[in-house]
Amino acid sequence: MSYRINAALEQWLPEQRLFLKSDTETRFIRLRPATQAIAITGITLVAAWSIVATAIVLMDWISAGSTREQAARQQAMFEERLNSLSNDRDIRADEAARAQERFNLALEQVSDMQGRLLASEDRRRELETGIDVIQNTLRRTIEQRDEARTAAAAASLALAAETGTTRTDGARAEDAEATLAMLTAALGDTAVERDRMETAADAATARVSDMEIAARALQDRNDEIFAKLEEAVTISMEPLDNMFRAAGLSPEKLLDDVRSGYSGQGGPLSPLSLSSSSALPSPDEARANTILEGLDRMNLYRLATEQVPLAMPVTASFRWTSGFGMRRDPKGWGTRMHEGVDLAGAYGTPILATGDGVVIHAGWDNGYGRSVEIRHADGIVTRYGHMSELRVEVGQNVSRGQQIGDMGNSGRSTGTHLHYEILIGGSPVNPMTFIKAGQDVF
């Protein structure tokens, strides 16, 4: 078989001899056609492999350059968007601060007007009581005058019955005249007192009329203040409702959870009670109670915003390196679900809690490395992974903005960054939903 192969190749690859000559002898190496064919085939395969490998490397280099340029453009667009969102957030924060100042001023005006209204109500009741006393005194005086006239007539009749004459006796006539003079003087004094009382009553009536006009003006002013307060409460709560709904939360359920933890009553936001009787509240009292209920709801919203993770976990300089969703595994294990967002920064950058809560995990976790988990309101849990140092312990209460660790590269990681997750009922959700909702309001 070898001979046949060499004979077939002889016409294309004739046998070659390589002579090696030394001082004492001469030797040669015979290169048969089959050996030459094998060598040529090997050299061809090596050359072809080199060409293909060079082409692949060149194509990868060109593709990597295009990908880097595209990533740089996307990063520039994303940073521009972040700057725009930051400016919008600052504007909304300024508007919220100004609205809060206007609301505090209006609340002070309402308190002042309510105080003056109570004072005017007390003065009106005092005047009514004074008028009643004057009228009762006047009635008693008139009754005494009528009784005196009746007594004078009876005395005249008794005197006539005793003497049988029409007062011809000089002494009795003088006594009767003295009695009549006394009665006349008493009646005159009574009439003067009655006139004085009537004048005082007219003056009191005029004063009551003026007070009624002032009370109506005060009521109009109160209506205007109430309208502005109602509008301010409505405008202030609408963006908060939208914020929680944008984050996929139910505002009513969230407020119920917060209310269950803050169930005390009393203080400046208690329902108004301007009357000690059991009568129904006045329209002003009802409107004031409605406004105070709105303020109580806003206060619960304030508590909820502190407990819901709406803040940024990193406030120092960083860049977004990976978002929520399917992505290529950085370790080369195919396509996988990325259940959070990655924020890359300098080693040791402070990691902050995004809302009030309780630490339920602080330690090493496979894949996440040094990690922290915090339980917030409404069954929300936040997870922070790949940290270099932990600053909290299990069971510790933390506040929004409190440092819980340092950025690092622990666990299954390819570089220094923070892996940030939000879980609701144990299922991961996109953290950007909460971050965007918080930036739209604060």
Task: Quickly count the helices.
Answer: 6
The secondary-structure class comes to alpha+beta
Order of helices and strands: HEEHHHHEEEEEEEEEEEEH
Average pLDDT reading: 79
Cα shape: rod-shaped
Low-confidence stretches: 266-278
Helix fraction, binned, reads 55-70%
Give the biggest sheet: 10 strands, antiparallel
Descriptive notes:
Residues 266-278 have low confidence and may be disordered. This protein is an alpha+beta fold. The chain has helices at 2-9, 33-163, 170-246, 251-261, 283-307, 431-441, and strands at 16-21, 26-31, 318-322, 325-328, 335-338, 341-345, 350-352, 357-365, 369-375, 380-390, 397-398, 403-407, 418-424, 427-429. It starts with a helix and ends with a helix. The strands form 3 sheets. Strands 3, 6, 7, 8, 9, 10, 11, 12, 13 and 14 form a 10-stranded antiparallel β-sheet that branches. Among the domains are: 140-307, no CATH class; 311-435, Glucose Permease (Domain IIA), CATH 2.70.70.10.
Attribute tags:
ten-stranded antiparallel β-sheet, Glucose Permease (Domain IIA), 60% helix, two-stranded antiparallel sheet, alpha+beta, 442 residues, 6 helices, rod-shaped, 14 strands
